[in-house]
Specification:
The complex is a heterodimer of chains A (380) and B (380). By secondary structure, chain A is of the alpha+beta class. Chain A is 34% helix and 14% strand. Chain B folds into 2 domains: 90 residues, Transferase Creatine Kinase, Chain A, domain 1 (Orthogonal Bundle), CATH 1.10.135; 255 residues, Creatine Kinase, Chain A, domain 2. Chain B: Its EC number is 2.7.3.2.
């Protein structure tokens, strides 16, 4: 069709005339993009018509977050990671602790390989959760996809999820069309996602046509949840109260593999390659796309001078209990893995399980007025 | 075997129906006029710059509607949009502009301010007078579609031309990216500074991209003539002053708008005899002109016949904060309703005659006299 027309038209201007002003910017894209790279890539587009300017728009429009170094770029389809390699490899390396273009990523969704994780003290660990995302082959991604594509993704997802049974038997709630009662219940369960308001997402075009073809599926037990067409094609979440991360991870792996099998039968498997693992919209979610975490009470440890250092050494990150960009309440923190790319799902959840176990022991020691100096871990 | 015309049309309809937006909850001019047949006809077309129908209607899809105001729901990405998407834009124009049919009517342009009479208001009532319009530079894409290079070119062309203004129009340009904090504060105090758009009507149309690159404000030393560069249009041109001398405001307006300045440099404004001056939003076609006053009408505004009177006079009221604001202290922003199908001189005269009449009504009410209102709508 006509998708490359606009970019061809722009080529009549010079690189200098088009190059974005990034002088006030602090994000991974702004750090990585040079005039040379822009010159090399600006004339290219993926087969679906996504261009360099499309990739970087969100980073141009959002100079930076005061506390977090944002990524500043997104992809519109799986091919972007190849076509715009010269930029994205640098961003990926920077964001994922030195990951090189020649590195290989490990995928391991065999929950039996996780050691322990069923005995986190529920007096401290209030809830456990593992989430990831998946992109469906044959479709472009949320920054780029059309209404027709998004609806096709929804249709496929509904079919796949409707065929699940046993502990995975559940129901789909389209955002447009749920009753008030359903909506209130989903909000009460903390399942409902809103139209994105963050300019990081809206400037990337991810809220277009809202709420068309967006929805939420969850099982009857409310322990397995899938978001359709939010920031990624699918976001898959396994969760439950208490500290049995082993069970959460088992359900996560089993559910994901059941879903993938159904998509593959329709020739729409998940986007994956051995260098970048699972391909998602934001380069920060490459690899496993996995965030495994707990809500844990650490009032004493969190005020300890070495808290940040302990987290860094354990390869963990903290957030408030409202999720990213929120503050902790009552000494309860959301603790999860910091890594996504270059280690497997099992490895990342293992870090969470081992690290949280250690931190709870530290908390108990501090409660007794004892020192934790001897417990500070080595860098993992 | 080649398909016949109707079969082919069927196929297109089928492919396009997967893409057709869900407009069931929508109330805007685009949603009222778009049909599956029109969509099928236009969905694979693009302007020479590559702007598409989906892009033009995106803002109307993303913003179902304002409860009280029927928004337009679409924009133009360039001058050619009005031609290429005519099958949709023309009925939208007809609905928005009171029956004006672009296919068989001509729009009169008249910027001879010497034709205005009675343009001096009673300053016990009229606090300020203002005339604004917009102008687009032919050959460059409009804010929803322009690239950074095009936007910077608009800025260059306009700033260069304005440097040629002399006498009481001598002034200077303040680029949004380079103004000092002191300059910024002064512009805020003068109520000249415009912000990055936050209204989703504008952001969903892509008008805030790359902010604040290429944006700025020019004003004359006397602060009575002001130009916004690259906000919602290439330029917004404003003549204003305190008090009731609308004649002088319009004189200055016409003087400052002389196209000669950009013509000398090889450019011209977007204009044609069907649609008058071409701007981003179809609601601003024709003259793009809003002439208005801030006027004290505490008694009249409380009269139940106020809205009818305004209607008859082809005027609209707004609060003193502009569109979508409330009136404060009985002071209203009163301006012309129409933009297309009447000339600048006609519209300004309409405002002058109308406001004079409103003041007469207010004076009558002050004296306890009644006002007579035509039951039959005034002919214009």
């Amino acid at each position: 069709m006509t998708k490359n027309c606009h970019n061809d038209y722009k080529m009549k201007f010079t690189t200098d005339e088009e190059f974005p002003d990034l002088s006030q910017h602090n994000n991974h894209m702004a750090k990585a993009l040079t005039k040379e790279i822009y010159e090399k890539l600006r004339g290219k587009s993926t087969p679906s018509g996504f261009t360099l300017d499309d990739v970087i728009q969100t980073g141009v429009d959002n100079p930076g977050h005061p506390f977090i170094m944002t990524v500043g770029c997104v992809v519109g389809d799986g091919e972007c990671y190849e076509v715009f390699k010269d930029l994205l490899d640098i961003v990926i390396c920077d964001r994922h602790s030195g990951y090189k273009p020649t590195d290989k990523h490990r995928t391991d969704l065999n929950y039996e390989n996780l050691k322990g994780g069923d005995d986190l003290d529920p007096n401290y660990v209030l809830s456990s959760r593992v989430r990831t995302g998946r992109s469906i082959k044959g479709f472009t991604l949320p920054p780029h996809n059309s209404r027709g594509e998004r609806r096709a993704i929804e249709k496929l997802s509904i079919e796949a999820l409707a065929s699940l049974e046993g502990e995975f038997k559940g129901k789909y709630y389209p955002l447009d069309g749920m009753t008030d009662a359903e909506q209130e219940q989903l909000i009460a369960d903390h399942f409902l996602f809103d139209k994105p308001v963050s300019p990081l997402l809206t400037c990337a075009g991810m809220a277009r046509d809202w709420p068309d073809a967006r929805g939420i599926w969850h099982n009857e037990n409310k322990t397995f949840l899938v978001w359709v067409n939010e920031e990624d094609h699918l976001r898959v979440i396994s969760m439950q109260k208490g500290g049995n991360m082993k069970e959460v991870f088992r359900r996560f792996c089993v559910g994901l593999q059941k879903i993938e099998a159904i998509f593959m039968k329709h020739d729409h498997g998940f986007m994956w390659n051995e260098h970048l693992g699972y391909l998602l919209t934001c380069p920060s979610n490459l690899g496993t796309g996995l965030r495994g975490g707990v809500h844990v009470k650490l009032p004493k440890l969190s005020t300890h001078a070495k808290f940040e250092e302990i987290l860094t050494r354990l390869r963990l990150q903290k957030r408030g209990t409202g999720g990213v960009d929120t503050a902790s309440v009552g000494g309860v923190f959301d603790i999860s893995n910091a890594d996504r790319l270059g280690s497997s799902e099992v490895e990342q959840v293992q870090l969470v399980v081992d690290g949280v176990k250690l931190m709870v022991e530290m908390e108990k020691k501090l409660e007794k007025g004892e020192s934790i100096d001897g417990m500070i871990p080595a860098q993992k | 075997q080649p398909m016949d015309g109707s079969s082919f049309q069927c196929v297109i309809l089928c492919l396009c129906s997967a893409e057709y937006p869900d407009l069931r909850k929508h109330n805007n001019c685009m949603a009222s006029n778009l049909t599956p047949a029109i969509y099928a006809k236009l969905c694979d077309k693009a302007t020479p710059n590559g702007y598409t129908l989906d892009q033009a209607i995106q803002t109307g899809v993303d913003n179902p509607g304002h409860p009280f105001i029927k928004t337009v729901g679409m924009v133009a990405g360039d001058e050619e949009s009005y031609e290429v998407f005519g099958d949709l834009i023309n009925p939208v124009i007809k609905e928005r502009h009171n029956g004006y049919d672009p296919l068989n009517m001509k729009h009169p342009t008249d910027l001879d301010s010497s034709k205005i009479h009675s343009g001096l208001f009673d300053e016990r009532y009229v606090l300020s007078s203002r005339v604004r319009t917009g102008r687009s530079i032919r050959g460059l894409s409009l804010p929803p579609a322009c690239s950074r290079a095009e936007r910077r070119e608009v800025e260059r062309v306009v700033v260069d031309a304005l440097a040629g203004l002399k006498g009481d129009l001598t002034g200077r340009y303040y680029s949004l990216t380079q103004m000092t904090e002191k300059e910024q504060q002064q512009l805020i105090d003068d109520h000249f500074l415009f912000d990055k758009p936050v209204s989703p009507l504008l952001t969903c149309a892509g008008m805030a991209r790359d902010w604040p690159d290429g944006r700025g404000i020019w004003h004359n030393n006397e602060k009575t003539f002001l130009i916004w560069v690259n906000e919602e249009d290439h330029t917004r041109v404003i003549s204003m002053e305190k008090g009731g001398n609308m004649k002088r405001v319009f004189d200055r307006f016409c003087k400052g708008l002389k196209e000669r300045l950009i013509q000398e440099r090889g450019w011209e404004f977007m204009w044609n005899e069907r649609l008058g001056y071409i701007l981003t939003c179809p609601s601003n076609l024709g003259t793009g002109l809003r002439a208005g006053v801030h006027v004290k009408l505490p008694l009249l505004s409380k009269d139940p016949r106020f809205s009818k009177i305004l209607d008859n006079l082809r005027l609209q009221k707004r609060g003193t904060g502009g569109v979508d604001t409330a009136a404060v202290g009985g002071v209203f922003d009163i301006s012309n309703l129409d933009r297309l199908g009447h000339s600048e001189v006609q519209l300004v005269q309409t405002v002058i005659d109308g406001v004079n009449y409103l003041i007469e009504c207010e004076k009558k009410l002050e004296k306890g006299q009644d006002i007579k209102v035509n039951i039959i709508p005034a002919h214009h």
